[in-house]
């Protein structure tokens, strides 16, 4: 198994774990901003303690500032997405978020000079089409508003920026050091957002506490895997693999929330999986061919 394959597996598992959080949040009475706040802050002391104990990896002020762009984009993206779902329909926000891989592909090409073929673009559109079918097959409350749509668009743009800044920062920092820094910056951004929204900070019941811990820890492991994959997987592929999130969220809702999968949702999931599987396979084969040429 080569590094690209390891990166694809790590990235895919990371997105699966991250997607589970959305199911927990949807079944919780805890405000979304509160969930996002604790998701950023709760493991900072543990990560920071681990980093400070490492002799060869000191958490300097310079390294902390290096994490700022990724952390600010990450926290802003989460906050803006939650806000957008409150002022436009959830279906509009979800449809707009499914377009984020296209922004990531753009950034990977123009800022990291990654090779993007017509096949990569075609499979990306196929996978996005499957994600759109999944979203449209769901139910949604609220009516679409252009202001909310613009907020959602700004959120996914900042989310795409997070991936680009993370890739750059991880060339100089370890995963634990980077996560410590960007979670702190994310928390700094999310704290005033939460206070402005009037969301309570502390959990009110034992169930609230368990859900907050679950939303913090399960995606936390997912982010470790996702950041680990950054050095092994092209940014454009990391972006398109993000479409595993709606597939995983749908399956999780069936398993834990007694939801059902309609024929349209099932078709959308198959399209997404075929598109992502084909894209990953072709990338892996192309990587093997390039490696073989380099050795000869």
Tell me about this structure.
With 296 residues, the chain is an all-alpha fold. The chain has one domain. The protein contains 14 helices and no strands. Helix 2 (32-41) runs antiparallel to helix 5.
Q: What layout of secondary structure does this protein have?
A:
Elements: H1 3-26, H2 32-41, H3 44-53, H4 61-66, H5 68-87, H6 90-97, H7 100-112, H8 118-136, H9 146-169, H10 175-197, H11 206-229, H12 235-241, H13 244-256, H14 263-295
Helix pairs in contact: 1-11, 1-13, 2-5, 2-10, 2-11, 3-10, 5-6, 5-9, 5-10, 6-9, 7-9, 7-12, 8-14, 13-14
Briefly say what this structure is.
With 296 residues, the chain is mainly alpha-helical.
**Helix and strand element order:** HHHHHHHHHHHHHH
Spatial gap, N to C terminus: 20 Å
Strand content: under 5%
The overall pLDDT, averaged over residues, is 80
Summarize the main sheet: none
Extended strand count: 0
Features:
globular, mainly alpha, single chain, 296 residues, 79% helix, 14 helices
